[in-house]
Design a protein that fits this description.
CATH topology of chain B: Non-ribosomal Peptide Synthetase Peptidyl Carrier Protein, Chain A
Largest sheet of chain A: 11 strands, mixed
Largest interface: A-B, 9 and 11 residues
Shape of chain B: globular
Radius of gyration of chain A: 20 Å
Strand content of chain B: under 5%
Largest sheet of chain B: none
Radius of gyration of chain B: 11 Å
CATH architecture of the largest domain in chain A: 3-Layer(aba) Sandwich
Number of domains of chain A: 2
CATH superfamily of chain B: ACP-like
Distance between the termini of chain A: 22 Å
Oligomer: heterodimer
Helix content of chain A: 25-40%
Number of strands of chain A: 13
Number of helices of chain B: 3
Shape of chain A: globular
CATH topology of the largest domain in chain A: Peroxisomal Thiolase, Chain A, domain 1
Chain lengths: 414, 79
């Protein structure tokens, strides 16, 4: 028998260094955390719009020696996981062995930062070899390992690298472990820190980064808008505590929402070009898994990266799946407020979607003023629109380079 | 054992692991200080960096600060 999966805790690293409540309130108001980001890197300084968690200090929050072997993506992930763990009513100081509790984590870039630092040391300073901690700081499963070690999670420590679908896949696979009786509680989420010289330059080379300066950066990301000019990189982490419903009820946990379905597949057509056929199939799989029909869905947290090709493809998929109901379907992309967190984007968007259901209010697409005709056919939520919705169920989409799609379905806990 | 080696180790452990210098004595247990095998190698790497040395790989498992410093001691330049 399949078990129901409750979301009993959420946590994140707020870009402005505030609380999750402040983050959610700003997101609901459509306030952007995107700022102009510049560095003195050589050979060419960085100057882009980005979400940089400037006040984040892992050493101050987590303390040494805990952080000595942790790259920034692991530090952010552990902080988000601790936040969610506490929010669920668990104790972060309890390191006892928990064979029924695991972690499932998403990251696209892992510890790329530590390797780039090492390359600079070798090529600029003539260093022959790198500190041995670089091995364990750079590995993609570093963050899930630290979460498991710090919280005594003996069930599983799983890491998923599926580009921009990484965290959604991690959350979906964690959901399946609980649903199928393999675990009672899972810490699920993702973290990524793409503000790395080589990573920024590569995205820049792909010509999909939206430009911006001190004045224009907060408005640089404009999903579904006719004037959209590309995505904005963001760093961060978010986590959810997924729990067997009966387990949560037995300990009188507060249930934020139900994670009711997960659909994943692969387009297998092109490394970068989105394919609405694959997206239609993934959304349909998720609806079936959650035993809901399109009319049950009241809100879609779209992947919506604000790229020229990606946005119309996603809306096309929604029009096809939701058919006659599409025009009444509330849709928004929150990436214009928190940026594109790469492998962590599905986690922060899952947190937003779960809190939207709980609070009966959905976020707008910030900076959406003039809808691109190719993106019409759904009810886009703009800043200032009525966004109070009594949601029965909602969806979060993640569509990745490589053709990997991951769709999560959330239901109201009531 | 030279003072310079011990003082360097005390400084490194304060910077790296926030261990108070007075706890880093020659007979202090590496395990008690929370210095596992990976951190031992990392510390040897720090010594290599600081003094521009090439320290050979560990052949025996040190258990105290004294035994760990014995590995680097022969290579540290005398003032």
């Amino acid at each position: 028998m399949k078990r129901r999966v409750a979301i009993t805790g959420v946590g994140l690293v707020d870009p402005l260094g505030d609380s999750i409540h402040s983050f959610f309130d700003r997101t609901i108001r459509g306030e952007s955390s995107i700022r102009h980001y510049s560095t003195n890197d050589i050979p060419v300084p960085i100057s882009i719009p980005a979400v940089h968690c400037a006040s984040f200090d892992g050493d101050a929050i987590l303390g040494k020696p805990r952080t000595i072997s942790m790259d920034r993506f692991s530090q952010m992930g552990l902080v988000a996981a601790f936040d969610a763990w506490t929010n669920a009513g668990f104790d972060i100081s309890d390191k006892s062995h928990k064979p029924d509790v695991g972690v499932s984590w998403g990251t696209a870039l892992g510890g790329t930062r530590i390797y780039e630092q090492g390359l600079k040391e070798m090529w600029q300073n003539g260093r022959e070899r790198l500190p041995p901690l670089a091995v364990v700081m750079g590995m993609n499963n570093a963050c899930s390992s630290h979460i498991a070690i710090q919280l005594g999670l003996g069930n599983s420590s799983l890491s998923y690298t599926v580009a921009c679908s990484s965290a959604s896949a991690a959350i979906g696979e964690a959901y399946r472990r609980i649903r199928d009786g393999e675990a009672s509680v899972m810490v699920a989420g993702g973290s990524d820190t793409p503000l790395i010289y080589g990573v920024i330059r590569a995205w820049d080379g792909m010509r999909v980064l939206s430009p911006g300066d001190e004045k224009t950066s907060p408005n640089a990301c404009r999903p579904f808008d006719i004037s959209r000019s590309g995505l904005v990189l963001g760093e961060g982490a978010a986590a959810l505590i997924l729990e067997d419903w009966e387990h949560a009820v037995a300990r009188n946990a507060t249930i934020i929402a139900e994670l009711a379905g997960y659909g994943s597949n692969c387009d297998h057509t092109n490394l970068v070009k989105p394919d609405s056929n694959g997206q239609v199939a993934a959304i349909s799989l998720a609806l079936d898994d959650a035993s809901v029909v399109p009319k049950d869905i009241g809100y879609i947290n779209a992947h919506g990266t604000a790229t020229v090709e990606g946005d119309p493809s996603e809306i096309d998929a929604l029009r096809r799946v939701f058919s006659n109901q599409a025009k009444d379907l509330a849709v928004s992309s929150t990436k214009s407020t928190h940026g594109h967190l790469m492998g962590a984007s599905g986690a922060i968007e899952a947190v937003i979607t779960a809190l939207s259901i709980k609070n009966g209010v959905v976020p707008p697409t910030a900076n959406l003023n003039n809808i691109d005709p190719t993106c019409e056919g759904v009810r886009h939520i703009k800043v200032g629109d009525n966004n109070k919705l009594n949601l029965k169920a909602a969806i979060s989409n993640s569509f990745a380079f490589g053709g990997s799609n991951a769709v999560l379905v959330f239901k109201s806990a009531h | 054992m030279s003072n310079i080696a011990l003082e360097t180790m005390q400084t490194l452990l304060k910077e790296r692991l926030d261990i108070d210098k007075d706890k880093v004595t020659l007979d202090a247990s590496l395990e008690d200080l929370g210095i596992d095998s990976l951190m031992q190698i990392e510390l040897l790497f720090d010594f290599e960096d600081k003094y521009k040395l090439k320290i050979p790989d560990l052949t025996e498992k040190p258990t105290t600060i004294r035994e760990l410093l014995a590995v680097v001691e022969p290579f540290i330049p005398r003032p």
